[in-house]
């Protein structure tokens, strides 16, 4: 009997190759953006760099649990969800600090690195698009890549706004939006993973 429920989807071998590819892309971009964020003074770039690191970790975790039991994959998803919540809180706290003590970031470095990050995330999102439906683990991978692409588009627009306004407010607003996206994704992933664990426990009983 066929199963159309997300929790029954078995990832294909091709999915593992895609995960390895996006893991490499995200780790390289973490190194690029953390350096660019420090040099440019952009909170949005630093937030996105941490997001790249978190995504690389999550993709590695997804590879580890790829063909394991649903309960273990759901527990891995819970870890991802809570890590997104922690990331969102960190971004918000950093934004508040930069609002009070931060300087105007370098718009040229913001736009250059933001554009490169956008390209990396669009490629990752396109690679993962066909695998967006599945268990909470597959859903979390897709949501992370989708949110990153949205965030990088905002970074590029923020760099232009910084140039014209000579203010750090556009940069901080984008960081706030990225924090909100991380919160939304974290809550959704945690909710789906919790439901999967409950169903698994009921089946086990």
Automatic annotation (TrEMBL):
<keyword id="KW-1133">Transmembrane helix</keyword>
<feature type="transmembrane region" description="Helical">
    <location>
        <begin position="82"/>
        <end position="100"/>
    </location>
</feature>
<keyword id="KW-0472">Membrane</keyword>
<keyword id="KW-0812">Transmembrane</keyword>
<dbReference type="GO" id="GO:0005886">
    <property type="term" value="C:plasma membrane"/>
</dbReference>
<dbReference type="InterPro" id="IPR050681">
    <property type="entry name" value="CDF/SLC30A"/>
</dbReference>
<dbReference type="InterPro" id="IPR058533">
    <property type="entry name" value="Cation_efflux_TM"/>
</dbReference>
<feature type="transmembrane region" description="Helical">
    <location>
        <begin position="149"/>
        <end position="166"/>
    </location>
</feature>
<feature type="domain" description="Cation efflux protein transmembrane">
    <location>
        <begin position="19"/>
        <end position="197"/>
    </location>
</feature>
<feature type="transmembrane region" description="Helical">
    <location>
        <begin position="52"/>
        <end position="70"/>
    </location>
</feature>
<keyword id="KW-0862">Zinc</keyword>
<feature type="transmembrane region" description="Helical">
    <location>
        <begin position="172"/>
        <end position="191"/>
    </location>
</feature>
<keyword id="KW-0813">Transport</keyword>
<feature type="transmembrane region" description="Helical">
    <location>
        <begin position="18"/>
        <end position="40"/>
    </location>
</feature>
<feature type="transmembrane region" description="Helical">
    <location>
        <begin position="112"/>
        <end position="129"/>
    </location>
</feature>
<keyword id="KW-0864">Zinc transport</keyword>
<dbReference type="Pfam" id="PF01545">
    <property type="entry name" value="Cation_efflux"/>
</dbReference>
<dbReference type="InterPro" id="IPR027469">
    <property type="entry name" value="Cation_efflux_TMD_sf"/>
</dbReference>
<protein>
    <submittedName>
        <fullName>Cobalt transporter</fullName>
    </submittedName>
</protein>
<dbReference type="GO" id="GO:0005385">
    <property type="term" value="F:zinc ion transmembrane transporter activity"/>
</dbReference>
<keyword id="KW-0406">Ion transport</keyword>
């Amino acid at each position: 009997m066929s199963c159309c429920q997300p929790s029954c989807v078995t990832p294909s071998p091709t999915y593992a190759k895609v995960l390895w590819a996006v893991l490499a892309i995200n780790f390289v971009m973490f190194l690029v953006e953390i350096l660019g964020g420090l040099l440019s003074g952009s909170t949005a770039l630093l937030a996105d760099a941490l997001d790249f690191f978190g995504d690389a970790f999550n993709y590695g975790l997804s590879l580890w649990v790829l063909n394991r039991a649903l309960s273990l994959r759901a527990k891995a998803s819970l870890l991802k969800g809570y890590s997104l919540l922690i990331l969102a809180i960190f971004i918000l706290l950093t934004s508040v600090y930069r609002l009070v003590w931060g300087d105007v970031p370098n718009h040229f470095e913001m736009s250059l690195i933001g554009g490169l990050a956008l390209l990396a995330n669009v490629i990752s999102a396109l690679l993962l698009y066909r695998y967006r439906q599945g268990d909470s683990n597959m859903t979390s991978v897709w949501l992370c890549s989708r949110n990153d692409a949205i965030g990088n588009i905002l970074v590029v627009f923020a760099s232009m706004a910084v140039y014209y306004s000579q203010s750090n407010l556009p940069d901080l607003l984008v960081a706030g939006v990225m924090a909100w996206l991380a919160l939304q994704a974290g809550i959704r992933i945690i909710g789906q993973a919790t439901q999967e664990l409950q169903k698994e426990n009921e089946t086990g009983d």
